[in-house]
């Protein structure tokens, strides 16, 4: 027993040591031009780097995460976020790589909802539904960006004012998203918003992760754990039916670490609807603080990601609609299931489901949510 503990301690020291020696480097926050939009607007790249070499870079077009570098157990860095080398890629057709999505992350059925007796009609961009904010959502607007640094924590802060009626949503909305990186290798994302008229809001980040490194094959052999006893089944248009279904005995049970691809071939109606996982998981929680939503590991490298959130749910999406037509960083074409998303959120279509936790924001209230990505590593598989 004693010697086992000793071996473990030595191993941990060696892992930590490798990381330090190979990464070195001093934390830094930098701002540089990333490119110009087709309309000629300058877009900047804000890079936060801690003393362990962990790096997150965000552009103020869509407040998108364009780089997320993190070491594995041997200290080797990889960029685990799918994306593009230049602004042109982000401006072109792509499924929300790295983006902040809003006003309403995920779908609102038939692009309609009623609030205080008034019906609102939204821009439809997903069959008959409205997805991720509509035609020009938060992912395709220019945010104002700035950086701050204090006590070893670096921040990139993005603000945007969404006009009353934008994409059909009521109220002038002031929204701020802050990405912070500390030397503990946690990326914290804080969302804040206020409105001058009652509206609905559900803002999240749509990064596609591949813990083996973007461009390094699919994510089917990576291991996922989700802290959820229930999920919200969907209809053919991926709109929740309203049921909160127990995951027990279904391919949706990720309460124990499970290989992502192990059940994707199952002929479960819910799985085939989304061509894989594309479902909202209801998080187990008591109270409203941060809870662990998900933990993912890439066994060969040991790279791991924990997602913690104040939100009630997480959309686990296995990149089912990626089809190799999008050419990303280093000319990698992103084929089906080469990245997964963990979008912390309120349930899809909540404005049309009075039983779901509310997404209404009223004047005088503050919208405040936090999600943390804990970038970690474990002993790699032998
Ligand atoms: C949705 C998917 C959609 C993807 C990209 C996810 O959040 O749940 O259905 O295809 O985003 O738009």
TrEMBL record:
Question: Quick one: which residues bind beta-D-galactose?
Answer: 106-107, 206-208, 278
Q: Which GO terms describe its molecular function?
A: aldose 1-epimerase activity; carbohydrate binding
Q: What EC number(s) has UniProt assigned to this enzyme?
A: 5.1.3.3
| Pfam families named in the record | Aldose_epim
Q: Name one GO biological process term.
A: galactose catabolic process via UDP-galactose, Leloir pathway
Which cellular compartments is it found in?
Cytoplasm
Q: What reaction does this catalyse? A: alpha-D-glucose = beta-D-glucose
- InterPro entries registered for this protein in UniProt: Ald1_epimerase_CS (IPR018052), Aldose_1-epimerase (IPR015443), Aldose_1/G6P_1-epimerase (IPR008183), Gal_mutarotase_sf_dom (IPR011013), Galactose_mutarotase-like (IPR047215), GH-type_carb-bd (IPR014718)
Q: Which UniProt keywords apply?
A: Carbohydrate metabolism, Cytoplasm, Isomerase, Phosphoprotein
Q: Which GO terms describe its cellular component?
A: cytoplasm
Q: List the active site.
A: 206, 343
Principal localization?
A: cytoplasm
- What is its EC class? isomerase
Q: In which pathway does it act?
A: Carbohydrate metabolism; hexose metabolism
The record's NCBIfam families line, in alphabetical order, gives: PRK11055.1
Self-association and partners: Monomer.
- Say which family it is in: Belongs to the aldose epimerase family.
Which protein are we looking at? Aldose 1-epimerase
Source species, please?
Paludibaculum fermentans
